[in-house]
Design brief:
Structural class: mainly alpha
Number of strands: 2
Oligomer: single chain
Number of helices: 3
Radius of gyration: 18 Å
Distance between the termini: 62 Å
Length: 105
């Protein structure tokens, strides 16, 4: 697509192949915006193309990543509280997976 402004929304649910296909189709004078929330991946047993692209393309001139957090939520006030509750829960789950840290004497 030449001279186009293309938006890929909900990209957290793209696969590696879909993300690569989207990115390699940009034409001359085009711009792309990719949005997604890596905390909302619904791909069971697969890696998110959005999560991968952050790792693959970081540092390439002309490509930028903007990260938003719970302070950017502009939905019902309860949504922020729900997000914070999930963050606490997921942090606790991760800490349980890693087990107690060893302290050397």
């Amino acid at each position: 697509l030449n001279h186009a402004f293309v938006i890929l929304d909900e990209a957290q649910n793209t696969t590696h192949t879909q993300m690569k296909m989207f990115l390699t189709r940009l034409g001359f004078g085009s711009k792309a915006v990719i949005t997604g929330d890596i905390t909302q991946v619904d791909l069971v047993g697969r890696t998110s193309g959005l999560r991968e692209v952050i790792e693959i393309l970081s540092g390439i001139p002309g490509i930028a990543f903007v990260y938003l957090d719970r302070r950017d939520v502009v939905r019902h006030p309860l949504v922020r509280a729900i997000i914070e509750a999930y963050e606490r829960y997921e942090k606790g789950q991760q800490e349980r997976k890693e087990g107690p840290s060893e302290i050397s004497a």
